[in-house]
Write a structure and sequence with these properties.
heterodimer; A: mainly beta; Immunoglobulin-like; 13-stranded mixed β-sheet; five-stranded antiparallel β-sheet; 5 helices; 29 strands; B: mainly beta; 2 domains; seven-stranded mixed β-sheet; three-stranded antiparallel β-sheet; 1 helix
């Protein structure tokens, strides 16, 4: 029996395989040829003695029929002294009153070398103690003929081109001169200097490793062969690249209970430098910072399910921070859930319980708020706050208007068509500590959005609040009319803004009344 | 006696099982319905017509195999079930030497091609793919010529910028896949097969260049693979002999 079963298995294995594949290898060969033609011989070599130790050379460009000219070789007295990709060279370290012969050759990318140019000979300047010699250029092969003229050394045409970390200072001198540039963050030029020992009339000095957005002071000093000096002082500011602007918050951040899980969803900001969303959870308060709780999500998605929150926790607070590519974080969009009463609690306002109050905060109202959109600032005391629904906007409150111990300030917007749909955000202190602010993404729809402003103590207890309305109108429909006020409203408006003037007037009237009613001293009274 | 009978019964039972399994397992395609197909059938005793609600089977009595023979113009697989195994063949692709030497600095273009003939009796057809051994494909020691990079779909025209130095291919033939077909100067659209059009770059991963869902035995189908190297005027490609080792892979579907 066993033997027969083996036969069955072997029969199964012996079934022919139908899959079949064939491979076929071959090669493709391509020859790439080389360049054997040298460049043309450089022409118009000019040598110019500019100092007792320096001769400058210039020449005309070579060409290459099947390649590109890669550079030039410079020969002094038939000995190669340099290679350069430029059409000029300054030969330094020479002896005074000495004649030198120069040639130049060109070479291409395959190191085919041209013939040498015609020889150009010239003599370095003599050492003269009292006169100021300089020369006009001499043509190639023709020797040199010095021409003496007075030197008027001056620095001209100073230009500074800056980036965030570098500055290129270019200038000219009225005569051949060596130069140095000192620089620093103060007029003491404490950061050092650059110097060139080549005599030239067009100078360029590059400063690097600078700090962005900083003012630098520099001084140019030049001296010519005779020892005349000139200087020039100025300053520049490097470009600022630091991005201090926080990104706008995620929009429509909601927390929804689904069984024991919490489903979080949101809309990511449309900003170009948006990087990712990081959601922090805390079971006691709204996280004010990305280090203020447990990271439950970090990514570029638009939803996340936190599983098994309940029954270990019956309440959870979430803050969604939008982060940009420069590490700036938004103020935070907030939401919370609780399993106590309702199956869904999406914003803080439904869980906040007032327990105390603060007189200073109690004075705050909608008029203390500022709304910024498209670089325009609108104040809450305006009766009409119209915003473009297609653009983000910033709501802010002056830093000095609330006590420092308050760490949590929230703002809640209600959907104009569904008041049960609310979205809440934290206000954070900006980097210059001038305001608490939150940048909210484009609301997208036209309508009137009820706004609730809350001050939370111990991060969850509301100690003060006020309400207002923000309306969004598509740009074409925005007219920004001047609010029409009645005379009484005008007086009340002036009274609310300039109450101290009224107080002053009252005091003055009271003092005048006292002066008028006070008994004047008589001669008899004085004698008594 | 009882032992002998038991053994005979067991042997007959096992033989029946083996026969049934073989009849079901060996299946070269000869028939099909909407729900399945039969590659081939074989019932060793008798022949005739059998039918069910979903198919009709006409089978033949088997015969002894007489083997395979071929010449330059035909392949013959004579005898019983000789076509049971899928026949799949491809002619050897000739090595390609590109049309001209390109100046490494002056630049230029060179072309070349090779042709293969694929033959199969697989009624489901075949698939032909190409891949390079190296990345990039063309190499000469440490020096390389980049693989052609089309802008999305294959480029209708092989385009070489001043600083480009690249190597591409374009298949042509009646079975090339839609990616290399063209319409009005655009590739991966229409059904055209414009000569010297629709260029792509080689990859070490196989790319399907030709495909058919029918058997083409015995005539086969030709596919020509054209190659092109382009060197721009400022690419400064280092001189040398660049070789792309290429593999064509043919599978039966």
């Amino acid at each position: 029996m066993i033997r027969n079963l083996v036969i069955v298995i072997m029969a199964l294995v012996a079934v022919p395989t139908l899959a079949l594949a064939i491979t076929n290898d071959f090669t493709v060969t391509q020859q790439i040829g080389s360049d054997t033609t040298p460049p043309t011989v450089p022409t118009a070599l000019v040598t110019t003695p500019v100092a007792t130790t320096q001769i400058d050379l210039t020449w005309g460009a070579s060409t290459d029929v099947d390649s590109s000219v890669a550079g030039y070789q410079v020969f002094r007295d038939s000995v190669q002294i340099a290679t350069t990709t430029l059409l000029s060279y300054s030969d330094t370290g020479l002896s005074a009153s000495t004649s030198y012969d120069y040639n130049v050759s060109a070479y291409d990318l395959f190191f085919n070398i041209s013939g040498r140019s015609a020889t150009s000979s010239t003599t370095t300047l003599p050492i003269v103690a009292t006169t100021t010699p300089t020369t006009t250029p001499t043509s190639g092969g023709g020797g040199s003929q010095n021409e003496l003229r007075p030197i008027d050394l001056a620095i001209e045409g100073v230009q500074v081109e800056v980036t965030d970390t570098t500055a290129v200072i270019s200038f000219e001198t009225s005569a051949y001169a060596v130069s140095s540039v000192r620089y620093g963050l103060s007029p003491q030029y404490e950061l050092g200097s650059t110097a060139s020992d080549i005599y030239r009339q067009q100078h360029l000095s590059k400063l690097s490793s600078l700090e962005s957005g900083s003012r630098y002071y520099f001084e140019i000093m030049v001296s010519n062969q005779r020892g005349d000096v000139a200087s020039y002082k100025s300053d520049f500011i490097t470009q600022s690249i630091e991005d201090l602007v926080p990104p706008e918050n995620v929009a429509r951040f909601r927390a929804k209970i689904e069984g024991d899980d919490v489903l979080l969803d949101w809309d990511i900001p449309a900003a170009n430098d948006f990087d990712r969303v990081r959601i922090i959870a805390n079971r006691q308060f709204y996280p004010n910072d990305i280090a203020d709780g447990l990271i439950v999500y970090d990514g570029r998605g638009e939803s996340y399910r936190q599983v098994g929150v309940y029954p270990e926790h019956d309440r959870m607070y979430y803050t969604a921070f939008a982060l940009d590519t420069n590490g700036n974080q938004s103020s935070g969009a907030i939401a919370s859930v609780t399993w106590v009463e309702e199956s869904e609690t999406s914003v803080a306002t439904s869980t906040i319980v007032a327990t105390s109050s603060s007189e200073e905060i109690a004075e705050l109202s909608f008029s203390n708020l500022e709304f910024i959109q498209n670089s325009k600032i609108r104040h809450g005391y305006q009766s009409l706050i119209d915003l473009d629904p297609n653009r983000p906007f910033t709501i802010r409150l002056p830093y000095d208007s609330v006590p420092e111990h308050l760490k949590t300030i929230t703002i809640t917007l209600k959907d104009p068509s569904d008041s049960s749909l609310t979205f809440a955000f934290l206000l954070r202190i900006n980097k210059v500590k001038s305001h608490y602010e939150a940048t909210i993404g484009a609301l997208g729809r036209q309508g009137k959005y009820p706004l609730h402003f809350s001050f939370l103590d111990f991060k969850t207890k509301e100690i003060a609040s006020f309400d207002g309305v923000v309306s969004t109108v598509f740009k074409s429909e925005q007219a920004y009319p001047e609010p029409k006020r009645t005379l009484v409203e005008h007086l009340l408006f002036i009274a609310s803004r300039y109450w101290w003037c009224w107080l002053l007037v009252l005091i003055l009237l009271y003092m005048a009344y006292r002066l008028m009613t006070e008994e004047r001293p008589t001669k008899e009274n004085v004698l008594e | 006696m009882r032992l002998v009978s038991s053994s005979i019964i067991t042997t007959i039972t096992v033989a029946s099982i083996v026969t049934l399994i073989y009849v079901q397992a060996v299946n070269a395609q000869v028939m099909q319905s909407a729900s399945y197909q039969i590659e081939s059938d074989s019932i060793n005793v008798g022949g005739g017509l059998a039918s069910s609600t979903t198919y009709v089977l006409e089978d033949t009595v088997g015969e002894q195999a007489t083997g395979e023979s071929s010449s330059g113009s035909y392949n013959l697989k004579a005898g019983y079930q000789q076509m049971l195994e899928v026949y799949l063949a491809i002619t050897a692709a000739a090595d390609v030497t590109m049309s001209q030497t390109i100046g490494g600095v002056s630049g230029g273009n060179a072309t070349g091609s090779t042709m293969v003939t694929v033959t199969t009796d697989s009624r489901a057809g075949y698939q032909l793919s190409i891949n390079a051994l190296n990345s990039p494909a063309m190499q000469d020691g440490a020096n390389t010529i980049a693989d052609y990079v089309p802008s999305g779909d294959p480029d209708f025209t092989f385009t070489t910028g001043a600083s480009d130095s690249h190597f591409g291919y374009s298949p042509e033939g009646s079975d090339i896949v839609s990616r290399f077909r063209d319409l009005a100067g655009s590739c991966n659209s229409g059904s055209g097969d414009t000569a010297d059009a629709c260029w792509d770059g080689m990859s070490t991963s196989p790319s399907v260049i030709a495909e058919s869902n029918d058997a083409n035995h015995p005539s086969g189908t030709d596919t020509t693979i054209k190659f092109q190297v382009g060197v721009g005027g400022s690419a400064n490609q280092v001189p040398g002999t660049y070789v792309a080792t290429t593999t064509l892979t043919l599978i039966a579907l």
